[in-house]
């Protein structure tokens, strides 16, 4: 397992993050412990959870007792703690403070390494959220902050506010990204690369569709949470292309799908989740897969995607001498 800095910080994070969203059954603690042990033995050091993930935080608090500082522990706030209380959800200061305090108790720790805004709350001013996050950082209860599931303009404006006012900026962005769902390539991924934000990619296997579970005729192999009837012809074509690439390389479809994400940009860190050690071990093997450029392009072509306006329009303009002249930016040397 290799490591990169988290965003513009000096914190080293492993190239694959571990998602503990499925840690919700008290009776399965032994299985969860075996999975965490396998992840740690492979060199993984980032564990991602959230206040809204049921029993995940209390279970992690039990499992990490005695070696919590070995991990970069991440949690989230925003989603309601009590649906009858209008102030128990959202990105305002009150919900941040109360949710964080509960998470610290449940995780049995005095701090979290990375605290995510779980999703954008259009009813809370960004100034309030960023200042409140900076306050918990200054109090030592949070070390770094990030944001999940928000528009690019929100993230960039929040980081600009932090820069101008001396507050803690976002170090990471958490978004869905896989071969079937490439929306972040329009605005969010270019923004993250420009601002040097780590991108934690959730659902990297598209809920298992890219793991080789589905045959060419759509028949699932083994357990799946996906209704085969909801899959499109494009979904099946991409899943088949991933399986074919895996066969060509002598590896598994899950590893190919994860390796494709890693090949797209050095800022991307897939969040892997698993039902058992065997599945987790397969996913961890993606760090050993280096895809040839031909396969990267073949898979991208199978997962047809249009960036749309303004990206496609601006690319055309840059290639046209009428716009920037014959010394257009693509030919300039900095």
From TrEMBL:
Keywords: Oxidoreductase
A GO CC annotation given for this chain: cytosol
Start and end residues of each NADP-dependent oxidoreductase domain: 16-302
Keyword Metal-binding: no
Pfam families: Aldo_ket_red
UniProt GO molecular function: oxidoreductase activity
InterPro entries in UniProt: AKR, AKR_Detox_Biosynth, NAD(P)_OxRdtase_dom_sf, NADP_OxRdtase_dom
Protein name: Aldo/keto reductase
Source species of the chain: Spongiactinospora rosea
């Amino acid at each position: 397992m290799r490591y990169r800095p988290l965003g513009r910080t000096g914190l080293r994070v492993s190239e694959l993050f571990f998602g503990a969203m499925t840690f919700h059954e008290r009776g399965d603690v032994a299985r969860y412990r075996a999975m965490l042990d396998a992840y740690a033995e492979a060199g993984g050091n980032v564990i991602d959870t959230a206040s809204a993930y049921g029993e995940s935080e209390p279970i992690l608090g039990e499992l990490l007792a005695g070696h919590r500082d070995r991990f970069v522990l991440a949690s989230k706030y925003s989603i309601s703690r009590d649906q009858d209380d209008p102030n128990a959800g959202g990105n305002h200061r009150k919900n941040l403070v109360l949710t964080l305090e509960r998470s610290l108790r449940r995780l049995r720790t005095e701090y979290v390494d990375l605290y995510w805004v779980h999703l954008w709350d259009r009813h809370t001013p960004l100034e309030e959220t960023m200042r409140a996050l900076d306050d918990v950082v200054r109090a030592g209860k949070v070390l770094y902050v990030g944001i999940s599931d928000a528009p690019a303009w929100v993230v960039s404006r929040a980081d600009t506010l932090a820069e101008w006012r001396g507050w803690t900026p976002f170090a990471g962005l958490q978004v869905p990204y896989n071969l079937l769902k490439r929306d972040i390539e329009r605005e969010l991924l270019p923004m993250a690369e420009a601002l040097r934000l780590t991108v934690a990619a959730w659902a990297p296997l598209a809920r298992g569709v890219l793991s080789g579970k589905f045959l060419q005729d759509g028949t699932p192999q083994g357990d799946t949470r996906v209704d085969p009837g909801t899959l499109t012809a494009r979904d099946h074509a991409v899943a088949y292309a991933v399986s074919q690439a895996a066969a060509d390389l002598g590896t598994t479809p899950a590893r190919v799908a994860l390796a494709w994400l890693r090949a797209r940009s050095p800022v991307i860190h897939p969040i892997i989740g698993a039902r058992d050690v065997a599945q987790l071990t397969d996913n961890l093997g993606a760090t050993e897969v280096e895809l040839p450029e031909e396969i990267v392009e073949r898979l991208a072509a199978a997962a047809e995607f249009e960036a749309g306006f303004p990206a496609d329009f601006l690319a055309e303009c840059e290639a046209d001498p009428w716009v920037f002249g014959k010394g257009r930016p693509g030919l300039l040397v900095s």
